[in-house]
Amino acid sequence: MQSKTLVFLHGAWVTPLCWERFIPFFEAKGYTCHAPAWPYKDRSIDELRRSPAPQLARLGITEIVDHYDRFVRRLDQPPILIGHSYGGLFVQMLLDRGLGVAGVAIDSAPPRGVLPFYPSVIRANSGVLLTPGGWHKVLRQSFKQFQYAFVNALPEAEQRAAYDRYVVPETGRIFFQSAFALFSGVAAVNFGNGRRAPLLMIAGGADHITPVAMNRVNFARYKNSMAVTDFKEFVGRCHWIIAQPGWEEVAGHIANWLERQS
Predict the structure, then answer these.
(1) Among 28, 112, 115, 214, which residue has the least CB neighbours within 10 Å?
(2) CA dist 117 → 91, 99, 124, 137 (Å)
């Protein structure tokens, strides 16, 4: 693996701004970094909060992955893919398509075949899944919901600061697609694909919305693949692992892992 190009894939409820710590870290190591937004989310936080695009309501997993697919294919060299939350799921799907020279899935949303029915996951997503017609709506996450799902390991002042800086409205469709993934191929990954690039999965031990147990099941699904697949748990880290204090340890582990793949 010779690539020095990185593509960062953000997750739900946020924008590429969530990578504002990781990007300078990897640029200092000589990487060229890209962090494209999901469709309809390439605007300022204030604009997205004030008037989210109506088209966002119709945005699903397939459309987002295809959007990243087109971006990656336009680059001068195949990149390394690093994704958080839903971005982690998208990394797995893009690697399965043969894109990327390596991938890192941080606190990944589950592909088809990894059941999401853990008590903390159900609680974290209940506000969305219990919204009438949520499948067809642009939804907003309350501070209380964000506290439990994303930043449960942080002091309240830091929780509020993160909410105010990063959280934006989101398409409800992706959450329903994940909840009913067993009945469709929308989030499917060929776990036995031995030709895909190396994959590192990272999980936070205190994560509520993508708990470490679910990530371990995801990792175990790759046991019959001949492709490199590694796993790392960071004890005590919540879903905000890419920005909570100690994020440098996570970024450093990724950088070291990438060096080993070279």
Answers:
(1) 28
(2) 22, 30, 11, 23
